[in-house]
Amino acid sequence: MNHCLLFNIVTINRLASNRTNGIYRIAHILRENGWDVEVIDFALDWSLDELKALANSRVTNNTKFFGTSHIFGWWEPSMDVFFQWAKDKWNIKVISGSSTNPLYNSSTIDYYIQGFGENAILSVLKWLFSNGERPRFWYNTGKRILNANAEYPALPMKDLTVKYEVRDFIQPEEWLSVEFARGCLFKCDFCNFPLLGVKEDTSRDTDNFDLEMRINYDTWGVQNYTVSDETFNDRPSKIAKFADVVEKLPFEPFYSGFIRGDLIVNRPKDRIDLARMNFRGHHYGVESFNHASASSVGKKFDTEKLKQGLIDVRKYFKETGNGLFRGTLSLIVGLPHETYETLLETRKWLIDNWNGESLVIYPLLIPNHELEERSAMSDYTKWGYRLMDPVEYKRRLSLIDNEFHWKHFGHEGLQYKETPWEHDVMNTVDAREFIFEHFYNQEFFHEMNYLTANYDMGSFGYGKKTVEQRLNSTATRAMYFNQSDAFIFDTTKRIFVEKYKQRKLSL
């Protein structure tokens, strides 16, 4: 039987490294087609020696390739060191993939699949190992890239089952990933998920979903799920039909995922159905509370109405289901029409109205990948953006890395091809500095009352939803920005991962 190892890489934030849905979908498809597949989770938390020891214990004459899966387009150079060692020792192939950008900057990836890769990976493997037809690659900087969504589409899929094995060591306190549907209806200009978009309802069969929930509970005791859909609440009918399934389950699961804020504000019934299915962790991709900025990137909602609506939604969920709710807002610094003044107004609103909840805020990243050319932000000049002087960009970025520890965004050692930008208000480095000065510091976290938030919901946490967990996770995260010499990991997560590695290495 052909054998492979799949390494689960989450590069957006080491504190949030978890088991992602994509790599287990690939593992499931390969197993259905006769492959022996072992998934290695939390790959960035393994030392090089540990990865080598694991590979030495697993690789046989039947091992055909190593694989990776990414959520985002960052790459961890340490994985190239490991993969090169494996290539030198066994002449093994490396296949990688992601829903977003191809990783041109990896020196060891032989084949890269962009998009939903179930059909594409089978085509590549048949070509490599079974004399199948050569896949329709395109080339960039010498890399073989397969645009799966165009050439080997794997959507819609009514069966989105993910099955775990004993050697995955699933624990009941985990937040596993679950997929309800694929694609996004919307075309936000800063986002590359519309490249995966579909117009019709592509949600999975309810019987298929029901069975996955029951198996995971009966086998592993798992009740908590992070939803991988780009926008879960795009259709009211989808929410209602899955809420009907959840209400009939003999246990009480919880869900957390991306919710379109303007939709839940404008459709009150959605709140009822989301509450029925215990969708209590909401990540709202607001990006900007400045109306002109939000409109410029495709989010043409009434920002003042949205602000009040989010307050009302929060109140509704706090008053139902024993008060279980965790709200996260995401913002982008550097969008068109945004100024320092409007950003400071947003900061004040958050402190006054989003107290005790969560926030993620990033500088605008304009990628320079060819596959991103269909994203409207690739035509950044129409908004007055210019290329920042590359020498000045590198000089300033090196200073901010030292002064503000950019690694706390999860970018330490990571490689990402972006376009250094500037306009009349700020540049890409100014955006980073502003974030650390006004948002990612102990003063802001204290003002936001993060330390008294009552539980962690859908933040890829491990353990019970208790005050103690919040103090072990977000409070720690709030305080580590004052640390100059160390990146502080969540204690609970570190213990969990270490136990997982020990079990894997003992097999």
Q: Can you give a write-up of this model?
A:
With 507 residues, this protein is of the alpha/beta class. Among the domains are: 3-154, Response regulator (Rossmann fold, 3-Layer(aba) Sandwich); 173-364, pyruvate-formate lyase- activating enzyme (Alpha-Beta Horseshoe), CATH 3.80.30. Helices cover 38% and strands 15% of the residues. It is built from 18 helices and 15 strands. It has helices at 21-32, 48-58, 77-90, 118-129, 148-151, 206-220, 236-247, 261-266, 268-276, 291-296, 303-318, 340-353, 390-404, 428-438, 442-447, 467-472, 474-479, 491-506, and strands at 3-8, 36-40, 63-70, 93-98, 111-114, 138-140, 143-147, 175-178, 224-227, 254-259, 279-287, 326-333, 358-363, 386-387, 421-422. The strands form 3 sheets. It has a 7-stranded mixed sheet. Strands 8-9-10-11-12-13 form a 6-stranded parallel sheet. Strands 14-15 form a two-stranded antiparallel sheet. The longest helix is centred in the middle third of the chain and has 16 residues, at 303-318. It is globular and about 60 Å long. The two termini are 19 Å apart. Mean pLDDT is 82; it is low at 12-16, 370-376, 403-415 and 451-489.
